[in-house]
Amino acid sequence: MARNPLFDGALRVVREVALRALERASRPTSPTKRRRTTPRPAPRPTPTTPADYPGDFRGSPAITYHPLADERPDPGEVVWTWVPYEDDPTQGKDRPVLLIGRDGPWLLGLQVTSQDHDVDEAQEAAAGRYWMDIGTGGWDHRGRASELRVNRIVRIDPDAVRRVGAVLDRETFDAVAREVRRHY
Hints:
This protein is 23% helix and 24% strand. By secondary structure, the chain is α+β, with helices and mostly antiparallel strands. It has one domain: SH3 type barrels (Roll). Strands 1, 2, 3, 4, 5, 6 and 7 form a seven-stranded antiparallel β-sheet that branches. Strand 2 and strand 3 (106-113) form a beta hairpin.
């Protein structure tokens, strides 16, 4: 039987949302647990398929650094989530993303990779792709050095984030913000 990647992706998103809901419902509440101090974005329906992706963010982003220890994705954190391919947003892959801000109910993120684009920097630039080294972090269980793309900002559904991988240190985040602003 032929597999449908779009259907498989939708099932994966539904499965992840259901597992997160079950995990939260079975977790005991603790009075000492740190509470969220900023309001959550307005609720909205979760996209059921990658085809619901509204497109990459265009314009100049309001970049913020505000990681919170609350198990929810926040700007300044590297998270794992589904990222659409640039040439076909109905397709994509699960990958780490650095969150840099918000656009209404969406999070804004930069894709992270362990591939070294320094070796093909001229070729990448000719194709309109610009990368920056960010070092290593808890988002990569093998401890590999990472880079992120500074001139493509993807919109991320907060409910589709699979896990928070790590908080990027403020100094590196500020350097990333400067590079992003150079391209927008």
